[in-house]
Every structure is written in structure tokens, then in C-alpha cells.
Design brief:
With 413 residues, the chain is an alpha+beta fold. It has 18 helices and 12 strands. It has 2 domains: 5-58 and 260-407, no CATH class; 73-245, no CATH class. The protein has a 6-stranded mixed barrel with strand order 2-3-10-5-9-6. The protein has a two-stranded antiparallel sheet with strand order 7-8. A hairpin with a 2-residue loop joins strand 2 (92-107) and strand 3 (110-119).
């Protein structure tokens, strides 16, 4: 819809009304600000939720792989054959044995629930980028040396170089009953994955040490598998699952964390719907400001009509006014949203300092910082929704203006 220079001149004058019409300008400014805030809120919330989901997936998948193969009963015998089958499956990029068992750890009278994780040397080396202190190479090279999570280290009060005692209640059977198994391990490294549950409980050690601690012999607990595409892990491993039927079960990361990600998906839809109402309210402000403008400019419209302006020209003038307000508010909202996302952690820290409240408790949020990831498709959808709603809001007042009868208006002039 192209405007002639005459139509654009009239639209521009109506968008910048004179002193006698400052109230109309105020309402239009409020409409623009409302659109801006609505768009910014949608951009910020959706980007944060996308970032939270993506960060959570990266952390979980980065430590647990895309799927695991678990034996019925918890011990996978003859795992070398299963490992070979997994590695030979098309689409599988990595497969490695894994032991994972909840136990207890103690240090200087403090006791903490932990998860012992037995990994291969290659998988232990993958933790290196997350090491805060110590050397992960010591864990790979020296028997009896472990790496522990940063939160766990804080709770136990340990540092690199200290020795912790890991307690296995299922020890060896004796004539007097089952003896509790306690083994001391040297702390070679402290890591921070960024997922609170992992940093608060994980103790990583080589598989032989885990087998000795748990008295499992040569068996392992599971096999960790990675595929080319995490989203299609279940389809990629379906043939392997059929081969291992009755012996082991293959569980992908979506199934293992189904309740968490379903809750995130529902919350994402709910937040988008609720925040879209803000944009809708802003659009009603545009509608009301245009209705007020049409009522204030009824005489001017009648004069324009008598001077030869067509109904279509009047229609385009008022559609342009409302659309420009909506477009300006949308662009300002996108800018405000991206500015907030760029300094989001600083904003969180400032609010925490002012209120004294912990807004991002990792015990609840799983992650240690506020993530964000803008999805271009969603950004375009938000901007498109705001522009379309703004355009629709202009139709009624624009049609009312175009239907003005100059004879009726100017009869008594």
C-alpha cells in the first residue's frame, strides 16, 4: 500500500498533532510504549526459556550422552559384545562403558549423599574444560584418585589434595552380617558442570576403581551412547534396542528427562500466550487513540473530501498512522529486548543486590546462571504478530474516517 506525497504529508501531520491535541499525542505515545513493552517482554521471556532449555539439554546430554543401555538388574554382563554392537550401529558416533551408583561420602565428620560415576579415561578427560582446581590427568593416571563437583566440595569442606571416604553399605558378607565397605580416595580435581544436581553429588573415578568399590567384578552398570543427532537418538538406536530385547533396555535422553522437558514445553506455550495479551492490550490502545484522532479530525477529513481526496486516500492515511505506531513500538521493543538480554546477568545481580533476595537459586533452577538464546524464527513471529495486530486495529477507525460524509459534517459551517 503505497502512499502519495499528499497522503504521506497528511499522515505525518496527524502523527504529530498541535498543542491543542496533546492528549491525543499522549495516548498515541502510550500505545507505542505499550507495544514496545509487550514485544520486549515476549522477546526476553521466550529467549530466556529457549536458553534455559538449550543449556539444560547441553549440560545433561554433555554428561550423560544421548542414550544409555542398561541391563535388567543393574549389572551388564558380557558388556564388551554389547559395546561392539552399539559402536557398529549406523548413526552412533561414540559409545563407552559407565558405572553409576548412589553412595555416601564423609570427610572430617561430615557425611553427604553422592553419586559415584565410573568412566573411561577418555570420558574423564572430557571433564577437563569444567575443572576449577586440580588436574583431571591425575584422576586418569592414578588409582584411588577422584574428581568431585564444586558444590559437593563446598558441602564437605574439602580441597584438592584432601582425602575423602566413600561408604558402600553393600559390602562383603561375613559371619556377623554384611560389613560396610569404606575406602579412602584422594581428590585430584574439582569441577563445575553448571547443573546443580551434578555439581552437588557427582564423584568421578576410573571404571576399575568403581568396580573395586562396588564389588561388581568385570560387569558394568550401563553403556553411554552418543549419536549424530540428539533429537533422533531414539530412531537411530531402535534397531539396537530390538537386538538387545530381553537382555537390556535402551533409553534416550528425552525419555530419561521426559517430565522435565514436558513441563518446560507447557510453560513455554503458557508464557507466550499470557505475554501476547500485553501486545493485544497495546493494540487496543492504538485502536482507541485512532478513534479519538478520527473524532478530532472529522472536520478536517470533510474538508479533504471536498477538496478531492478519495475515500481510499483517507483510509490509507489512518491505516498508515496506526501501522507506523505499531511498527515503531515493535522495533523499539526488539531493541529493548536485545539490550536486556545482553546485560541480563548484570540486571539479575543488581536486583539481587537491591532486594537481598536470591533470584536465581541453582538448587531450584538446575543451572548456575541465567541463560538466553534468541530464536530468529520466534523473533520474526513476535514482530509479525505485533505488526499484524497493529494493522488490524487500524481498520475500524480508518473505515470510519473514510466513510465520513462531508455534506453532513459541513452542513452548518
Amino acid at each position: 500500500m503505497l502512499l502519495t506525497p499528499f497522503e504521506w504529508m497528511i499522515a505525518r501531520r496527524y502523527m504529530l498533532p498541535g498543542k491543542a491535541e496533546r492528549f491525543i499525542a499522549l495516548v498515541a505515545g502510550i500505545s507505542l510504549a505499550a507495544v514496545m513493552l509487550g514485544v520486549a517482554a515476549l522477546v526476553i521471556v521466550m529467549s530466556v526459556m529457549n536458553g534455559f532449555r538449550a543449556e539444560l539439554i547441553d549440560k545433561i546430554v554433555g554428561l550423560n550422552g544421548h542414550a544409555v543401555i542398561q541391563a535388567y538388574g543393574g549389572r551388564l554382563e558380557g558388556w564388551q559384545e554389547v559395546l561392539a554392537r552399539a559402536r557398529a550401529t549406523p548413526g552412533v558416533t561414540h559409545a563407552s562403558p559407565l558405572i553409576e551408583q548412589p553412595l555416601l561420602a564423609s570427610f572430617d565428620g561430615r557425611v553427604q549423599a553422592i553419586v559415584v560415576r565410573g568412566n573411561t579415561a577418555e570420558d574423564i578427560g572430557a571433564v577437563a574444560p569444567h575443572v576449577l582446581s586440580g588436574n583431571i590427568a591425575d584422576v586418569k593416571a592414578n588409582a584411588g584418585t577422584v574428581a568431585i563437583g564444586a558444590r559437593l566440595a563446598e558441602n564437605l569442606g574439602v580441597r584438592v589434595g584432601d582425602d575423602i571416604t566413600i561408604i558402600n553399605p553393600s559390602g562383603r558378607a561375613t559371619p556377623f552380617g554384611t560389613s560396610v565397605r569404606q575406602i579412602s580416595y584422594h581428590i585430584g580435581a574439582i569441577f563445575e558442570i553448571g547443573v546443580y544436581d551434578y555439581d552437588n553429588s557427582f564423584v568421578i573415578m576410573p571404571i576399575p576403581d568403581a568396580q573395586t568399590l562396588l564389588l561388581t567384578g568385570d560387569s558394568i552398570g550401563m553403556i553411554e551412547v552418543r549419536t549424530r543427532d540428539a533429537d533422533t537418538a531414539a530412531e537411530t538406536l531402535a534397531p539396537l534396542a530390538r537386538q538387545l530385547g530381553g537382555r537390556a533396555i535402551v533409553t534416550d535422553w528425552k525419555t530419561m528427562n521426559a517430565s522435565l522437558f514436558q513441563a518446560l514445553a507447557v510453560e513455554r506455550v503458557a508464557m507466550f500466550t499470557v505475554l501476547s495479551i500485553i501486545v493485544l492490550v497495546a493494540v487496543f490502545n492504538i485502536l482507541s487513540s485512532l478513534i479519538m484522532l478520527v473524532r478530532a479530525k472529522t472536520r478536517d477529513i470533510a474538508i479533504l473530501r471536498t477538496m478531492g481526496a478519495s475515500r481510499q486516500s483517507v483510509l490509507k492515511i489512518f491505516i498508515t498512522i496506526g501501522s507506523v505506531i505499531g511498527a515503531a513500538g515493535t522495533l523499539a521493543g526488539l531493541g529493548l529486548g536485545f539490550l536486556f538480554l545482553a546485560f541480563r546477568q548484570n540486571v539479575v545481580n543488581a536486583i539481587e543486590a537491591l532486594t537481598g533476595q536470591n533470584l536465581w537459586d541453582p538448587k531450584i533452577r538446575f543451572l548456575t546462571h541465567l541463560p538466553a538464546r534468541a530464536d530468529p524464527v520466534e523473533i520474526f513471529a513476535i514482530a509479525g504478530m505485533a505488526l499484524v495486530l497493529s494493522f488490524l486495529a487500524t481498520l475500524y477507525p480508518a473505515r470510519r474516517a473514510a466513510s465520513t460524509d462531508p455534506v453532513q459534517v459541513l452542513r452548518y459551517e
